[in-house]
Design brief:
By secondary structure, the protein is mainly alpha-helical. It folds into two domains: 70 residues, no CATH class; 90 residues. It has six helices and two strands. It has a two-stranded antiparallel ribbon with strand order 1-2. Helix 1 crosses helix 4 and helix 3 packs antiparallel against helix 4. The longest helix has 44 residues. The chain is globular. The two termini are 26 Å apart.
């Protein structure tokens, strides 16, 4: 298949849930153009690129903070693990110290899972708002895929089949 911007080579497409999930979300966003004021997506699309871009930046910032939160949680798990090891080796009050250290490790592990969940949630917000911006500007997922594939070298492209590749005249557009 060929379009104005890209060419899709023949062959089997990679199997992944992300493609279907993004395609479904992009379709839903496109359909919301015809919704009413009750739709957040409709209202966002009506506000235009500047408002959508501001929201995308906000969500990207929240994603970066969530990643930092995950780093802190992992550090806490490591520190608690170290305390457990140290307490396990101590003779005095070993039972109490070990129990406290195990509790700290468990608490830190729960915080780490929560931080991981938070990062995934914020990443979803970034992708959603990016797709809203792309819809507003008329950029399709296939065009985005072709842009990403254009950044691969010939060797990486040769390993894949059924992928979208930008036509040469569009590889550097926007630069």
């Amino acid at each position: 298949m060929t379009s104005k911007f890209f060419d899709i080579t023949e062959g089997a497409s990679p199997q992944t849930q992300i493609g279907d999930a993004l395609s479904s979300l992009a379709q839903t966003i496109a359909e919301r153009r015809g919704a009413d004021e009750g739709s957040y997506t409709f209202r966002l699309l009506q506000k235009g690129s500047e408002a959508i871009g501001k929201k995308l930046v906000e969500e990207a910032f929240e994603t970066a903070l969530a990643a930092k939160e995950l780093d802190y949680a992992r550090d806490a798990v490591e520190a608690a693990d170290d305390a457990t090891t140290t307490a396990g080796a101590a003779v005095e009050d070993a039972a109490r110290s070990a129990a406290d250290a195990v509790a700290d490790t468990a608490s830190s592990a729960v915080a780490s899972v929560a931080a991981h969940d938070h990062l995934r949630y914020e990443a979803g917000d970034v992708l959603y708002h990016l797709l809203v911006l792309m819809e507003h500007e008329g950029i399709t997922l296939d065009e985005l895929a072709a842009e990403l594939n254009a950044r691969m070298d010939d060797e990486a492209l040769a390993k894949r089949s059924g992928i979208a590749v930008l036509l040469p005249e569009h590889v550097n557009r926007g630069k």
